[in-house]
Amino acid sequence: MPAEHDTDTSRWYALNVRPGREFDTRDRLSALVDAVYLPLAQTIDSRGHKIERPAVSRLLFVQAPAGQLLDLEREALQSGRPFYIYRDAGHTTPQAIPDSEMHMFMLVSSAPDAGLLFIDSPGPAYATGQRVRVTDGIFKGAEGRVRRVRRDRRVVVQIEGICAVALPFLHSSLLQPLD
Does position 31 have pLDDT exceeding 50, yes or no? Predict the structure, then answer.
């Protein structure tokens, strides 16, 4: 690894992986980076067995220095098992995810059977709305914006430009306005 990458700060980044290769990519990268997070959802197969599958197809999160991640992306492309780092608007540098957004996303997306709705590629409609904090229950401490999703009022926790997760309906007594 080149010397200039040694001083990079470890940050969270989102990766776009091939469909059906999320688990393989997670396992391959887990020994090479600081942390890997794959949001999972439980489903029931045709035999009635519970199975875990990626909650958002093609999406994986890693924590590593940007330089190291760029080197890994290049090596993966050459090996025939590519993944692509989400880039900033100029499509040149990797889009770092703030730690606070990533921890909030992990908090809500790791709750088992909580009626979550994962939204990949959130549109601009999720950029406005009242900002709130959940004050009680399994999502206590989660911060997001109130939105209407599928005719229901939900708190949406978003990783800017990548994806979002909508919490199940929460009564207004469990919400504290932040604006």
Answer: yes
